[in-house]
Amino acid sequence: AQKITQTQPGMFVQEKEAVTLDCTYDTSDPSYGLFWYKQPSSGEMIFLIYQGSYDQQNATEGRYSLNFQKARKSANLVISASQLGDSAMYFCAMREVYGGATNKLIFGTGTLLAVQP
Amino acid sequence: EPEVTQTPSHQVTQMGQEVILRCVPISNHLYFYWYRQILGQKVEFLVSFYNNEISEKSEIFDDQFSVERPDGSNFTLKIRSTKLEDSAMYFCASTQPPGQGETQYFGPGTRLLVL
Question: Is B98–A100 a contact, with Cβ atoms under 8 angstroms apart?
Answer without folding.
Answer: yes
